[in-house]
Specification:
The complex is a heterodimer of chains A (about 230) and B (about 270). Chain A is an all-alpha fold. Chain A contains 7 helices and no strands. In chain A, helix 4 runs antiparallel to helix 5 and helix 6 packs antiparallel against helix 7. The chains are: A mainly alpha (about 230), B mainly alpha (about 270).
Chain lengths: ~230, ~270
Protein backbone atom coordinates (compact mmCIF):
# COMPACT_ATOMS: atom_id res chain seq x y z
CA UNK A 1 0.00 0.00 0.00
CA UNK A 2 2.62 2.50 1.06
CA UNK A 3 5.07 1.60 -1.66
CA UNK A 4 2.65 1.46 -4.58
CA UNK A 5 0.68 4.57 -3.72
CA UNK A 6 1.55 7.41 -6.04
CA UNK A 7 -0.03 10.12 -3.93
CA UNK A 8 1.49 9.42 -0.54
CA UNK A 9 2.55 12.54 1.32
CA UNK A 10 6.18 11.54 1.64
CA UNK A 11 6.60 10.78 -2.04
CA UNK A 12 4.85 14.04 -2.92
CA UNK A 13 7.34 15.99 -0.86
CA UNK A 14 10.35 14.02 -2.06
CA UNK A 15 9.42 14.20 -5.75
CA UNK A 16 8.82 17.94 -5.69
CA UNK A 17 11.20 20.25 -7.55
CA UNK A 18 14.05 21.76 -5.56
CA UNK A 19 12.52 25.22 -5.28
CA UNK A 20 9.25 23.82 -4.01
CA UNK A 21 11.20 21.67 -1.57
CA UNK A 22 13.04 24.74 -0.32
CA UNK A 23 9.75 26.58 0.10
CA UNK A 24 8.27 23.64 1.98
CA UNK A 25 11.34 23.36 4.22
CA UNK A 26 11.20 27.08 4.95
CA UNK A 27 7.53 26.88 5.77
CA UNK A 28 8.09 23.90 8.04
CA UNK A 29 10.82 25.79 9.89
CA UNK A 30 8.65 28.89 10.17
CA UNK A 31 5.71 26.83 11.34
CA UNK A 32 7.83 25.12 13.97
CA UNK A 33 9.19 28.46 15.21
CA UNK A 34 5.78 30.10 15.26
CA UNK A 35 4.30 27.20 17.18
CA UNK A 36 7.18 27.38 19.63
CA UNK A 37 6.49 31.06 20.16
CA UNK A 38 2.78 30.38 20.42
CA UNK A 39 3.39 27.97 23.28
CA UNK A 40 6.07 30.20 24.85
CA UNK A 41 3.73 33.16 24.83
CA UNK A 42 0.85 31.06 26.07
CA UNK A 43 2.86 29.89 29.07
CA UNK A 44 4.57 33.24 29.85
CA UNK A 45 1.41 35.31 29.44
CA UNK A 46 -0.55 32.92 31.61
CA UNK A 47 2.15 33.12 34.25
CA UNK A 48 2.25 36.93 34.01
CA UNK A 49 -1.52 37.14 34.39
CA UNK A 50 -1.47 34.88 37.43
CA UNK A 51 1.43 36.79 39.04
CA UNK A 52 -0.23 40.13 38.40
CA UNK A 53 -3.49 39.01 39.97
CA UNK A 54 -1.63 37.57 42.97
CA UNK A 55 0.45 40.71 43.53
CA UNK A 56 -2.53 43.03 43.20
CA UNK A 57 -4.36 40.98 45.79
CA UNK A 58 -1.35 41.09 48.13
CA UNK A 59 -0.79 44.81 47.55
CA UNK A 60 -4.33 45.84 48.39
CA UNK A 61 -4.50 43.46 51.36
CA UNK A 62 -1.25 44.52 53.06
CA UNK A 63 -0.87 47.49 55.37
CA UNK A 64 2.92 47.49 55.38
CA UNK A 65 4.21 48.47 51.95
CA UNK A 66 7.78 48.41 53.23
CA UNK A 67 7.57 44.69 54.00
CA UNK A 68 6.14 44.04 50.55
CA UNK A 69 9.08 45.96 49.05
CA UNK A 70 11.56 43.91 51.09
CA UNK A 71 10.03 40.69 49.78
CA UNK A 72 9.89 41.96 46.19
CA UNK A 73 13.54 43.02 46.31
CA UNK A 74 14.44 39.69 47.94
CA UNK A 75 13.29 37.23 45.31
CA UNK A 76 13.79 38.54 41.86
CA UNK A 77 13.53 35.08 40.33
CA UNK A 78 9.86 34.57 40.94
CA UNK A 79 8.68 38.16 40.93
CA UNK A 80 6.13 39.14 38.33
CA UNK A 81 6.08 42.15 36.06
CA UNK A 82 3.83 44.18 38.32
CA UNK A 83 6.00 43.35 41.33
CA UNK A 84 9.07 44.64 39.51
CA UNK A 85 7.28 47.86 38.57
CA UNK A 86 6.29 48.33 42.19
CA UNK A 87 9.82 47.61 43.35
CA UNK A 88 11.45 50.11 41.00
CA UNK A 89 8.95 52.81 41.97
CA UNK A 90 9.34 52.25 45.69
CA UNK A 91 13.14 52.12 45.39
CA UNK A 92 13.09 55.51 43.68
CA UNK A 93 10.81 56.80 46.44
CA UNK A 94 13.19 55.53 49.14
CA UNK A 95 16.17 57.15 47.40
CA UNK A 96 14.33 60.49 47.36
CA UNK A 97 13.60 60.06 51.02
CA UNK A 98 17.24 59.35 51.84
CA UNK A 99 18.53 62.29 49.84
CA UNK A 100 15.99 64.49 51.59
CA UNK A 101 14.16 65.88 48.61
CA UNK A 102 11.35 68.05 49.89
CA UNK A 103 9.36 68.78 46.74
CA UNK A 104 6.40 66.46 46.32
CA UNK A 105 6.16 67.05 42.59
CA UNK A 106 9.79 66.13 42.04
CA UNK A 107 9.45 62.91 44.05
CA UNK A 108 6.21 61.90 42.32
CA UNK A 109 7.55 62.56 38.86
CA UNK A 110 10.79 60.72 39.67
CA UNK A 111 8.87 57.70 40.95
CA UNK A 112 6.58 57.77 37.90
CA UNK A 113 9.53 57.92 35.53
CA UNK A 114 11.20 54.97 37.21
CA UNK A 115 8.01 52.94 37.08
CA UNK A 116 7.41 53.99 33.48
CA UNK A 117 10.84 52.69 32.49
CA UNK A 118 10.23 49.32 34.13
CA UNK A 119 6.72 49.20 32.69
CA UNK A 120 8.04 49.70 29.19
CA UNK A 121 10.67 47.04 29.67
CA UNK A 122 8.02 44.63 30.93
CA UNK A 123 5.53 45.29 28.15
CA UNK A 124 8.34 44.91 25.64
CA UNK A 125 9.08 41.54 27.18
CA UNK A 126 5.41 40.56 27.05
CA UNK A 127 5.12 41.67 23.44
CA UNK A 128 8.30 39.92 22.33
CA UNK A 129 7.86 37.51 19.36
CA UNK A 130 4.39 38.85 18.67
CA UNK A 131 5.79 40.66 15.63
CA UNK A 132 7.18 37.35 14.42
CA UNK A 133 3.77 35.73 14.75
CA UNK A 134 2.19 38.62 12.82
CA UNK A 135 4.76 38.29 10.06
CA UNK A 136 4.28 34.55 9.80
CA UNK A 137 0.51 35.01 9.68
CA UNK A 138 0.65 37.50 6.85
CA UNK A 139 3.55 36.21 4.77
CA UNK A 140 3.54 32.43 4.94
CA UNK A 141 0.37 32.03 2.79
CA UNK A 142 2.14 34.00 0.08
CA UNK A 143 5.26 31.88 0.41
CA UNK A 144 3.12 28.75 0.13
CA UNK A 145 1.31 30.23 -2.85
CA UNK A 146 4.63 30.96 -4.49
CA UNK A 147 5.63 27.32 -4.06
CA UNK A 148 2.30 26.21 -5.49
CA UNK A 149 2.51 28.49 -8.50
CA UNK A 150 6.03 27.33 -9.22
CA UNK A 151 5.02 23.67 -8.89
CA UNK A 152 2.03 24.11 -11.19
CA UNK A 153 4.19 25.94 -13.70
CA UNK A 154 6.56 22.97 -13.71
CA UNK A 155 3.64 20.56 -14.05
CA UNK A 156 2.33 22.35 -17.11
CA UNK A 157 5.78 22.67 -18.60
CA UNK A 158 6.12 18.90 -18.23
CA UNK A 159 2.74 18.58 -19.91
CA UNK A 160 3.98 20.46 -22.96
CA UNK A 161 6.55 17.69 -23.62
CA UNK A 162 3.87 15.02 -23.63
CA UNK A 163 1.86 14.61 -26.81
CA UNK A 164 -1.38 13.51 -25.23
CA UNK A 165 -2.44 15.54 -22.23
CA UNK A 166 -4.06 13.46 -19.52
CA UNK A 167 -4.94 14.27 -15.97
CA UNK A 168 -2.37 11.70 -14.81
CA UNK A 169 0.44 13.86 -16.18
CA UNK A 170 -0.59 17.00 -14.33
CA UNK A 171 -2.14 15.59 -11.17
CA UNK A 172 1.06 14.71 -9.25
CA UNK A 173 2.62 18.08 -10.00
CA UNK A 174 -0.45 19.97 -8.88
CA UNK A 175 -0.80 17.81 -5.78
CA UNK A 176 2.81 18.38 -4.79
CA UNK A 177 2.38 22.08 -5.44
CA UNK A 178 -0.74 22.26 -3.31
CA UNK A 179 1.16 20.71 -0.40
CA UNK A 180 3.13 23.98 -0.26
CA UNK A 181 -0.06 26.03 0.05
CA UNK A 182 -1.37 23.68 2.70
CA UNK A 183 1.80 24.10 4.70
CA UNK A 184 1.67 27.88 4.31
CA UNK A 185 -1.89 27.95 5.59
CA UNK A 186 -1.02 25.54 8.40
CA UNK A 187 1.71 27.96 9.50
CA UNK A 188 -0.37 31.09 8.97
CA UNK A 189 -3.73 30.28 10.58
CA UNK A 190 -2.50 29.50 14.11
CA UNK A 191 -0.04 32.38 13.92
CA UNK A 192 -2.78 34.89 13.08
CA UNK A 193 -5.10 33.52 15.77
CA UNK A 194 -2.32 33.52 18.33
CA UNK A 195 -1.19 37.04 17.38
CA UNK A 196 -4.67 38.49 17.85
CA UNK A 197 -5.18 36.64 21.10
CA UNK A 198 -1.82 37.58 22.60
CA UNK A 199 -1.96 41.20 21.45
CA UNK A 200 -5.27 41.48 23.24
CA UNK A 201 -3.84 39.79 26.35
CA UNK A 202 -0.78 42.06 26.50
CA UNK A 203 -2.99 45.14 26.00
CA UNK A 204 -5.11 44.12 28.95
CA UNK A 205 -2.06 43.42 31.10
CA UNK A 206 -0.38 46.74 30.27
CA UNK A 207 -3.57 48.69 30.98
CA UNK A 208 -3.68 46.91 34.34
CA UNK A 209 -0.05 47.92 34.97
CA UNK A 210 -0.80 51.54 34.07
CA UNK A 211 -3.76 51.81 36.37
CA UNK A 212 -1.67 50.25 39.17
CA UNK A 213 1.10 52.77 38.52
CA UNK A 214 -1.32 55.68 38.84
CA UNK A 215 -2.81 54.31 42.03
CA UNK A 216 0.60 53.55 43.53
CA UNK A 217 1.99 57.01 42.80
CA UNK A 218 -1.08 58.47 44.51
CA UNK A 219 -0.43 56.31 47.57
CA UNK A 220 3.24 57.34 47.68
CA UNK A 221 2.28 60.99 47.35
CA UNK A 222 -0.01 60.64 50.36
CA UNK A 223 2.75 58.82 52.31
CA UNK A 224 5.29 61.51 51.46
CA UNK A 225 3.28 64.35 53.02
CA UNK A 226 3.30 63.04 56.63
CA UNK A 227 7.07 62.45 56.30
CA UNK A 228 7.51 66.06 55.16
CA UNK A 229 5.45 67.30 58.09
CA UNK A 230 7.49 65.22 60.54
CA UNK A 231 10.71 67.01 59.58
CA UNK B 1 17.07 42.00 31.34
CA UNK B 2 19.04 38.82 32.06
CA UNK B 3 16.24 37.87 34.48
CA UNK B 4 13.67 37.97 31.70
CA UNK B 5 15.71 35.64 29.49
CA UNK B 6 15.94 33.21 32.38
CA UNK B 7 12.19 33.30 32.78
CA UNK B 8 11.55 32.32 29.19
CA UNK B 9 14.15 29.58 29.13
CA UNK B 10 12.24 27.27 31.42
CA UNK B 11 9.18 27.67 29.25
CA UNK B 12 10.95 27.43 25.91
CA UNK B 13 11.79 23.75 26.21
CA UNK B 14 8.15 22.94 26.82
CA UNK B 15 7.15 25.17 23.95
CA UNK B 16 9.50 23.33 21.59
CA UNK B 17 8.21 19.95 22.70
CA UNK B 18 4.59 21.05 22.26
CA UNK B 19 5.31 22.57 18.86
CA UNK B 20 6.94 19.33 17.68
CA UNK B 21 3.95 17.40 19.01
CA UNK B 22 1.54 19.59 17.08
CA UNK B 23 3.51 19.06 13.87
CA UNK B 24 3.74 15.33 14.40
CA UNK B 25 -0.03 15.27 14.87
CA UNK B 26 -0.56 17.31 11.72
CA UNK B 27 1.69 15.07 9.66
CA UNK B 28 -0.06 11.97 11.02
CA UNK B 29 -3.45 13.41 10.10
CA UNK B 30 -2.22 14.24 6.61
CA UNK B 31 -0.71 10.80 6.08
CA UNK B 32 -3.85 9.05 7.24
CA UNK B 33 -6.03 11.46 5.29
CA UNK B 34 -4.13 10.66 2.12
CA UNK B 35 -4.25 6.94 2.82
CA UNK B 36 -8.03 7.15 2.61
CA UNK B 37 -7.71 8.34 -0.93
CA UNK B 38 -5.77 5.24 -1.88
CA UNK B 39 -8.72 2.91 -1.29
CA UNK B 40 -10.85 4.14 -4.20
CA UNK B 41 -8.01 3.21 -6.58
CA UNK B 42 -8.75 -0.54 -6.72
CA UNK B 43 -12.47 0.14 -7.09
CA UNK B 44 -12.36 1.29 -10.72
CA UNK B 45 -10.33 -1.86 -11.50
CA UNK B 46 -13.24 -3.89 -10.17
CA UNK B 47 -15.62 -1.95 -12.38
CA UNK B 48 -13.55 -2.75 -15.45
CA UNK B 49 -13.67 -6.46 -14.62
CA UNK B 50 -17.44 -6.25 -14.24
CA UNK B 51 -17.86 -4.85 -17.71
CA UNK B 52 -15.92 -7.81 -19.12
CA UNK B 53 -17.62 -10.63 -17.20
CA UNK B 54 -21.25 -10.29 -18.37
CA UNK B 55 -20.47 -11.33 -21.93
CA UNK B 56 -19.53 -14.96 -21.19
CA UNK B 57 -22.08 -15.11 -18.37
CA UNK B 58 -24.96 -14.28 -20.67
CA UNK B 59 -23.73 -16.68 -23.30
CA UNK B 60 -23.90 -19.52 -20.77
CA UNK B 61 -27.27 -18.31 -19.61
CA UNK B 62 -28.74 -18.73 -23.04
CA UNK B 63 -27.49 -22.31 -23.45
CA UNK B 64 -28.16 -23.80 -19.95
CA UNK B 65 -31.88 -24.56 -20.41
CA UNK B 66 -30.96 -27.27 -22.94
CA UNK B 67 -28.19 -29.07 -20.99
CA UNK B 68 -30.13 -28.89 -17.71
CA UNK B 69 -33.09 -30.86 -19.04
CA UNK B 70 -31.24 -33.96 -20.21
CA UNK B 71 -29.84 -34.49 -16.70
CA UNK B 72 -33.09 -35.51 -14.93
CA UNK B 73 -34.03 -38.21 -17.50
CA UNK B 74 -30.54 -39.69 -17.11
CA UNK B 75 -31.36 -40.66 -13.51
CA UNK B 76 -34.67 -42.45 -14.11
CA UNK B 77 -33.25 -44.48 -17.00
CA UNK B 78 -31.30 -46.95 -14.75
CA UNK B 79 -34.30 -47.24 -12.40
CA UNK B 80 -36.57 -49.18 -14.82
CA UNK B 81 -33.72 -51.61 -15.46
CA UNK B 82 -33.64 -52.43 -11.73
CA UNK B 83 -37.40 -52.78 -11.48
CA UNK B 84 -37.93 -55.79 -13.84
CA UNK B 85 -35.93 -58.39 -11.78
CA UNK B 86 -38.46 -58.55 -8.89
CA UNK B 87 -41.28 -58.96 -11.43
CA UNK B 88 -39.46 -61.91 -13.03
CA UNK B 89 -38.77 -63.62 -9.66
CA UNK B 90 -42.42 -63.58 -8.57
CA UNK B 91 -43.66 -66.40 -10.85
CA UNK B 92 -40.81 -68.74 -9.81
CA UNK B 93 -41.76 -69.18 -6.10
CA UNK B 94 -45.43 -69.84 -7.10
CA UNK B 95 -44.55 -72.95 -9.13
CA UNK B 96 -42.28 -74.42 -6.43
CA UNK B 97 -44.73 -75.04 -3.51
CA UNK B 98 -47.32 -76.94 -5.70
CA UNK B 99 -45.14 -79.98 -6.56
CA UNK B 100 -44.11 -80.40 -2.89
CA UNK B 101 -47.73 -81.10 -1.78
CA UNK B 102 -48.52 -84.24 -3.93
CA UNK B 103 -45.10 -85.82 -3.13
CA UNK B 104 -45.74 -86.28 0.65
CA UNK B 105 -49.13 -88.20 0.57
CA UNK B 106 -47.83 -90.87 -1.89
CA UNK B 107 -45.09 -92.02 0.58
CA UNK B 108 -47.51 -92.87 3.54
CA UNK B 109 -49.84 -96.06 3.21
CA UNK B 110 -48.65 -98.82 5.74
CA UNK B 111 -50.31 -98.28 9.13
CA UNK B 112 -53.14 -96.12 10.44
CA UNK B 113 -51.07 -95.03 13.41
CA UNK B 114 -48.23 -94.35 11.22
CA UNK B 115 -50.69 -92.72 8.92
CA UNK B 116 -52.08 -90.74 11.79
CA UNK B 117 -48.61 -89.86 13.01
CA UNK B 118 -47.60 -89.12 9.51
CA UNK B 119 -50.84 -87.27 9.02
CA UNK B 120 -50.07 -85.28 12.14
CA UNK B 121 -46.54 -84.73 10.91
CA UNK B 122 -47.88 -83.94 7.48
CA UNK B 123 -50.38 -81.59 9.01
CA UNK B 124 -47.53 -79.97 10.87
CA UNK B 125 -45.46 -79.87 7.73
CA UNK B 126 -48.42 -78.59 5.78
CA UNK B 127 -48.99 -75.99 8.43
CA UNK B 128 -45.34 -75.06 8.28
CA UNK B 129 -45.46 -75.03 4.53
CA UNK B 130 -48.61 -72.95 4.59
CA UNK B 131 -46.92 -70.56 6.93
CA UNK B 132 -43.88 -70.51 4.70
CA UNK B 133 -46.13 -70.00 1.72
CA UNK B 134 -47.90 -67.20 3.51
CA UNK B 135 -44.57 -65.68 4.41
CA UNK B 136 -43.41 -66.06 0.84
CA UNK B 137 -46.70 -64.67 -0.40
CA UNK B 138 -46.39 -61.72 1.93
CA UNK B 139 -42.83 -61.21 0.84
CA UNK B 140 -43.97 -61.39 -2.75
CA UNK B 141 -46.78 -58.97 -2.09
CA UNK B 142 -44.37 -56.59 -0.40
CA UNK B 143 -41.91 -57.00 -3.22
CA UNK B 144 -44.68 -56.36 -5.71
CA UNK B 145 -45.85 -53.37 -3.76
CA UNK B 146 -42.31 -52.11 -3.58
CA UNK B 147 -41.89 -52.66 -7.26
CA UNK B 148 -45.16 -50.89 -7.90
CA UNK B 149 -44.10 -48.04 -5.69
CA UNK B 150 -40.78 -47.85 -7.45
CA UNK B 151 -42.55 -47.93 -10.76
CA UNK B 152 -44.87 -45.22 -9.60
CA UNK B 153 -41.94 -43.21 -8.31
CA UNK B 154 -40.15 -43.74 -11.57
CA UNK B 155 -43.23 -42.67 -13.44
CA UNK B 156 -43.52 -39.63 -11.23
CA UNK B 157 -39.86 -38.83 -11.74
CA UNK B 158 -40.23 -39.26 -15.45
CA UNK B 159 -43.34 -37.11 -15.46
CA UNK B 160 -41.63 -34.44 -13.39
CA UNK B 161 -38.59 -34.56 -15.62
CA UNK B 162 -40.82 -34.30 -18.66
CA UNK B 163 -42.66 -31.38 -17.14
CA UNK B 164 -39.40 -29.70 -16.29
CA UNK B 165 -38.07 -30.47 -19.71
CA UNK B 166 -41.17 -28.98 -21.29
CA UNK B 167 -41.03 -25.96 -19.04
CA UNK B 168 -37.37 -25.42 -19.81
CA UNK B 169 -38.05 -25.87 -23.48
CA UNK B 170 -40.91 -23.43 -23.25
CA UNK B 171 -38.73 -20.96 -21.40
CA UNK B 172 -35.97 -21.41 -23.91
CA UNK B 173 -38.46 -21.04 -26.73
CA UNK B 174 -39.94 -17.97 -25.11
CA UNK B 175 -36.45 -16.53 -24.60
CA UNK B 176 -35.57 -17.35 -28.18
CA UNK B 177 -38.82 -15.85 -29.40
CA UNK B 178 -38.26 -12.73 -27.28
CA UNK B 179 -34.71 -12.52 -28.51
CA UNK B 180 -35.79 -12.96 -32.09
CA UNK B 181 -38.47 -10.31 -31.59
CA UNK B 182 -35.95 -7.93 -30.06
CA UNK B 183 -33.48 -8.63 -32.84
CA UNK B 184 -36.18 -8.00 -35.43
CA UNK B 185 -37.21 -4.81 -33.66
CA UNK B 186 -33.69 -3.45 -33.59
CA UNK B 187 -33.03 -4.59 -37.14
CA UNK B 188 -36.12 -2.67 -38.20
CA UNK B 189 -34.91 0.36 -36.28
CA UNK B 190 -31.50 0.10 -37.95
CA UNK B 191 -33.04 -0.25 -41.38
CA UNK B 192 -35.37 2.67 -40.74
CA UNK B 193 -32.50 4.84 -39.63
CA UNK B 194 -30.45 3.88 -42.68
CA UNK B 195 -33.48 4.56 -44.92
CA UNK B 196 -33.88 7.97 -43.33
CA UNK B 197 -30.28 8.79 -44.11
CA UNK B 198 -30.24 7.37 -47.61
CA UNK B 199 -30.76 9.79 -50.46
CA UNK B 200 -31.68 7.69 -53.46
CA UNK B 201 -30.83 9.57 -56.65
CA UNK B 202 -33.64 10.11 -59.07
CA UNK B 203 -34.00 7.64 -61.84
CA UNK B 204 -33.44 4.58 -59.69
CA UNK B 205 -36.25 2.17 -60.36
CA UNK B 206 -38.41 0.94 -57.47
CA UNK B 207 -38.38 -2.64 -56.26
CA UNK B 208 -34.64 -3.01 -55.92
CA UNK B 209 -33.29 -5.06 -52.99
CA UNK B 210 -29.77 -4.81 -51.61
CA UNK B 211 -28.40 -7.37 -49.17
CA UNK B 212 -25.56 -6.22 -46.95
CA UNK B 213 -23.46 -7.58 -44.07
CA UNK B 214 -22.67 -4.75 -41.64
CA UNK B 215 -20.11 -5.18 -38.86
CA UNK B 216 -21.36 -3.02 -35.99
CA UNK B 217 -19.07 -1.96 -33.18
CA UNK B 218 -20.38 -1.98 -29.60
CA UNK B 219 -20.80 1.81 -29.67
CA UNK B 220 -23.01 1.63 -32.74
CA UNK B 221 -20.24 2.57 -35.13
CA UNK B 222 -19.89 0.73 -38.46
CA UNK B 223 -16.68 -1.06 -39.33
CA UNK B 224 -15.74 -0.36 -42.93
CA UNK B 225 -15.92 -1.78 -45.46
CA UNK B 226 -19.56 -2.81 -45.52
CA UNK B 227 -19.80 -6.07 -47.42
CA UNK B 228 -22.39 -6.29 -50.19
CA UNK B 229 -23.83 -9.81 -50.16
CA UNK B 230 -26.18 -9.31 -53.05
CA UNK B 231 -26.16 -6.22 -55.16
CA UNK B 232 -29.41 -4.61 -56.15
CA UNK B 233 -28.17 -4.44 -59.70
CA UNK B 234 -28.10 -0.67 -59.69
CA UNK B 235 -24.72 0.69 -58.52
CA UNK B 236 -26.30 4.09 -57.84
CA UNK B 237 -28.68 2.60 -55.31
CA UNK B 238 -25.89 0.47 -53.78
CA UNK B 239 -23.64 3.49 -53.30
CA UNK B 240 -26.49 5.56 -51.89
CA UNK B 241 -27.31 2.90 -49.33
CA UNK B 242 -23.65 2.44 -48.33
CA UNK B 243 -23.35 6.19 -47.82
CA UNK B 244 -26.59 6.14 -45.85
CA UNK B 245 -25.24 3.39 -43.57
CA UNK B 246 -22.09 5.36 -42.81
CA UNK B 247 -24.13 8.50 -42.24
CA UNK B 248 -26.52 6.86 -39.77
CA UNK B 249 -23.77 6.05 -37.28
CA UNK B 250 -24.23 5.32 -34.44
CA UNK B 251 -26.77 2.66 -35.29
CA UNK B 252 -29.40 1.90 -32.64
CA UNK B 253 -28.29 -1.09 -30.58
CA UNK B 254 -29.91 -2.91 -27.64
CA UNK B 255 -28.54 -2.00 -24.24
CA UNK B 256 -28.39 -5.71 -23.31
CA UNK B 257 -24.85 -6.98 -23.85
CA UNK B 258 -25.90 -10.49 -24.90
CA UNK B 259 -28.35 -9.14 -27.42
CA UNK B 260 -25.84 -6.65 -28.69
CA UNK B 261 -23.43 -9.48 -29.46
CA UNK B 262 -25.88 -10.83 -32.01
CA UNK B 263 -25.46 -7.59 -33.93
CA UNK B 264 -21.71 -7.96 -34.42
CA UNK B 265 -22.30 -8.89 -38.03
CA UNK B 266 -25.80 -7.93 -39.05
CA UNK B 267 -27.37 -9.04 -42.27
CA UNK B 268 -29.63 -6.34 -43.65
CA UNK B 269 -32.03 -6.35 -46.57
CA UNK B 270 -32.82 -2.95 -47.92
CA UNK B 271 -35.73 -2.66 -50.27
CA UNK B 272 -36.23 0.35 -52.44
CA UNK B 273 -39.80 1.54 -52.82
CA UNK B 274 -41.08 4.69 -54.37
Amino acid sequence: MNITSDISLVSLVLQASILVQIVMGLLLLVSLLSWTYIFTKMLTLGKARRQTAKFEEEFWATSDIGALYQRAAGHNENSGALERIFESGYREFLRHRKSGTLETAAVTSGVQRAMKATFQRETDRLESHLAFLATVGSVSPYVGLFGTVWGIMNAFRGLANVGQATLAHVAPGIAEALVATAMGLFAAIPAVVAYNRYAHDTDRLSSRFESFMEEFSNILQRQFKPAQNGR
Amino acid sequence: MPETIDHERGVRLWAWILALLVHALFVAVLVFGVSWQRHPEPAPMMAELWSDIPKPATVTEVTPPQPVTPEPPAQPVPAPVLAPPPVASTPAPRSEPKPVLPATPSAADIALKKKKEKAVQEAKRQADQKQREKMLAEQLRQERQDALKEERNDAKMRADAEVRHRQAEQLAQNARAAQAAAVDRYKLAIINKIRGNTEVPEGVPAGLTLEVDVTILPDGGVLEPVRIVKSSGDPRYDQAVLRGILRSQPLPLPSDVALRQLFRVTHLQLHHEK
